[in-house]
């Protein structure tokens, strides 16, 4: 149930400059159960489907899409939201996350089915939702996602938890090491590196990280029957590439694209990712199911 409609104002001024801030102050809220979910609605009117973005384990839309959202918003209506966590460190469930997404999609789909995009943990939530309610989705894009947590991920998650509890400085270094590709890290100048370090001073929410340990949506993948784009990241140490290939093989109407990046693809390759999302959501059937899309980005 939507209790507060976001004001549909363009994120662009009439002179072509960008309105600020983006993904900092919500444009509205959506009611779900007894909660109020902050949303960021660009409001752009477009003949193409509204894009709904589902963030990753960082816990906020800004943490996952700060660079991608404004690119997509240039020509499209884009809706993002901040997942609301249970109070008092109570456990977050996948069903709860899907319910929140359902409320946001209901807000965004007034003009028709949406183009649903999930990144990392958000890809898990988006895929679980798509298996339940495909009628509200025109296309599905899963970026750096996975279907079942494996031993490799559990080892990293256990290390994350120990450092979270005892050594925040080392946790920051682990996050930087796992999030970005080696080439991206060594190519940063001192200012860029300082900004990357500052960006990870806030640890991922522990409730999401605990839920990440238990992910298993394999049984629902066969029920996804909308055109789907799977995006894998070649240097991903958080969600290694084999997870993307499993999704590609399990979803019948899927296409596959690899981007040369670490897990933080929205930081390393924001323009390439935004173009891939936009192109696919405009014409989801341009490539037949089963296509491995060639990379034509420099």
From TrEMBL:
GO terms for molecular function: hydrolase activity. Residues 51-274 form the AB hydrolase-1 domain. SUPFAM superfamilies: alpha/beta-Hydrolases. InterPro entries: AB_hydrolase_1, AB_hydrolase_fold, AB_hydrolase_sf. Gene3D superfamilies: alpha/beta hydrolase. Keywords: Hydrolase. This is Alpha/beta hydrolase.
């Amino acid at each position: 149930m939507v209790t507060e409609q976001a004001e549909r104002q363009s994120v662009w001024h009439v002179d072509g400059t960008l309105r600020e801030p983006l993904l900092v102050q919500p444009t509205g809220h959506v009611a779900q159960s007894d909660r109020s979910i902050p949303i960021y609605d660009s409001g752009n009117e477009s003949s193409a489907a509204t894009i709904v973005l589902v963030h990753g384990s960082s816990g906020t839309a800004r943490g996952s899409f700060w660079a991608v959202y404004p690119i997509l918003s240039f020509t499209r209506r884009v809706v993002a939201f901040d997942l609301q966590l249970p109070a008092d460190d109570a456990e977050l469930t996948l069903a709860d996350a899907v319910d929140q997404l359902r409320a946001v999609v209901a807000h965004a789909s007034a003009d028709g089915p949406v183009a649903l995009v999930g990144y990392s943990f958000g890809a898990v939530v988006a895929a679980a939702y798509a298996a339940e309610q495909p009628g509200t989705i025109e296309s599905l894009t899963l970026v750096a996602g996975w279907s079942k947590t494996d031993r490799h991920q559990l080892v990293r998650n256990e290390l994350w938890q120990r450092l979270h509890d005892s050594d925040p400085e080392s946790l920051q270094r682990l996050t930087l090491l796992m999030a970005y590709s080696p080439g991206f890290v060594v190519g940063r100048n001192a200012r860029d590196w300082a900004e990357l370090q500052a960006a990870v001073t806030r640890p991922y929410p522990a409730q999401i990280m605990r839920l990440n340990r238990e992910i298993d949506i394999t049984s629902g993948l066969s029920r996804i029957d909308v055109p789907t784009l799977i995006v894998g990241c070649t240097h991903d140490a958080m969600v290694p590439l084999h997870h993307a290939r499993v999704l590609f093989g399990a979803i019948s109407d899927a296409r596959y694209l690899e981007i040369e990046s670490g897990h933080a693809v929205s930081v390393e390759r924001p323009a390439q990712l935004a173009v891939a999302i936009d192109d696919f959501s405009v014409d989801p059937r341009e490539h037949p199911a089963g296509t491995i899309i060639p990379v034509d980005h420099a």
